[in-house]
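re: that chain from earlier
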Amino acid sequence: MAVTLHDVASLAGVSIKTVSNVVNESPNVTASTRARVLAAVDELGYQPNLSARSLRSGRTGAIGLVVPELSLSYFAELADAVIRAAEARRLAVLIEQTNGDREREIEVLSSPRMKFTDGVLFSPLGMGMDDADRLRVPYPLVLLGERIFGGPTDHVTMHNVEAARAATAYLIASGRRRIAVLGAHPGEVIGSAGLRLVGYRRALDDAGIAFDADLVAATTLWHRANGAVAMRDLLSRGVDFDAVFGLNDTLALGGMRVLQESGRRVPDDVAVIGFDDLDEAGYSLPSLTTVDPGRREIAERAVAALVERIGGAAVPPREILAEYRVVERESAPALAH
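^ sequence. v structure.
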């Protein structure tokens, strides 16, 4: 039998109205009473009727997260971080996957399913700068990713250029000069690949190293298989390189596997660095040096910004940038080591 408000009230020794106030997050409850009621809720496993609550308050107690694909480890780990940040605020998360398709992304923005959420975190991959006006939706929306800048919503993102510059500079400081890149998208300017390639080239310029287009291997997707294919392309073309910068960790891991199959030693012959600091990066063999772009901070600050907008915050659209750091591991040790 389902647990009721009456059951919670009896266990907590309060009125049904008080339980209702706590469940609906009314401020007119003392801290001690709130704690007693929440303890009873947890003990009994009470589940509020979200539909009824929505009718009374206009809130569902849920937010949406729209991402390209959960098969990419970055988005899976981002979703985990968003869920944790939302749970800390007693919010549920509904996840939509678009596969990075522009038409699907546009469709999701206007989907009736968005009515089941109080606001949405949206990470597009197919949409671009020309689609900025499509972000003017009738519900709170916070943008993630690198596809649209200067739009009408809060935008939480990472220091792509600066972080990629730091990754490349790290390899240069370790004595590497011929640094190959895996994962470029030819012609892309706005987007992770385009921005990270800019950072790579700036680091080369800083060190007085000429850019060599032969060192750049393009891919369509950013999976391990794409990194492996890009590495085989470099090797088949006889390109000389002593380091590899994978524009994400999965590309770097796929490329590192092919290097080892070819007899190249990592890091003795070729140093490898990635970008994202995925959990698996610490468990590859050798473990992968990478850039932590602040994924947990992105999730926390994005959820916080969305909650502010849900609460009616009326401030101009904000661009919020997470901090980054290079995480040294075995695939690219610093020169001092």
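The mean pLDDT is 93.
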